[in-house]
């Protein structure tokens, strides 16, 4: 069976070019970048060249990039360290109700330590209201953490507008760009972003690798205690081969390639929706199909079919999709994103799947997905008729 992978919002396969770069550097750049002899100097040079490539991708300065183990560490560092460092200025934080758990759980932790968090609601398309944001902003707000794009429904947040509002406010602006980095153009200076989190494995890079952008002038202690690596901003010996592989993935992902992927994924979305309509499948899209959203994510409510059944039957057909965020899909808890969009009693919460595209997907993959869904729905309808 030729399997089809359509869960790229969870992780992406490393491309051959990235694998080649990582294995090459494992052979050539295994030295400790903090040492002063030739092995270390070579590793340091590779790391700093990689840092430059990555910094340019978001219009940052090289010294504003701090390498981390990925999005979770970057989010936790930005949120928790900002809160404790700036609590003398206030203890109020603003976020949205549909953030990733790597943002929500640190915020819940801070609430247990006396911080107050405002969770902005979203509409049925997964969008926040700028009016709600302005109303929530207070003199004692010290941090705003709002994702660039949602990992379950693909909604895109008004990052530039929020940055404009905050540029003269004391609050630092953090955005979780884990899903958006690699698909959307990002300019941290233009958008007045202070802190930004990413993860390499979302754009065909290695797992356990990412970076935290920290604007020049942002100061807080290292979240991980230990050595003085990353100019005392992140302790731990740097994983130079993974950093080089991350930079290779970023270099491949040019501005033209980002746009091409967004266009191709939008085409995939339209093709799926039209294919389901042509076959009279009862469904609705959770969120909004728009060329401006994160077009690699498509969340669909299949009316009357449980998430578990649809996901399992597609898996048996050799097609991998998700019931929601990969970090919570194994849980019995309902999707907090769909709950925030449609309410806790909506059938969508237990009858939806997430399809997410990647660089290696083709039109043939989409045709096979549509055919498999039609076959599954037809089978279930026959079973229902037989039972009655």
Automatic annotation (TrEMBL):
Keywords: Iron, Iron-sulfur, Metal-binding, Pyridoxal phosphate, Transferase. Its cofactor is pyridoxal 5'-phosphate. GO terms for molecular function: cysteine desulfurase activity; iron-sulfur cluster binding; metal ion binding. It catalyses: (sulfur carrier)-H + L-cysteine = (sulfur carrier)-SH + L-alanine. Residues 4-369 form the Aminotransferase class V domain. Belongs to the class-V pyridoxal-phosphate-dependent aminotransferase family. NifS/IscS subfamily. This is Cysteine desulfurase. It comes from Limosilactobacillus panis DSM 6035. The lineage of its organism: Bacteria, Bacillati, Bacillota, Bacilli, Lactobacillales.
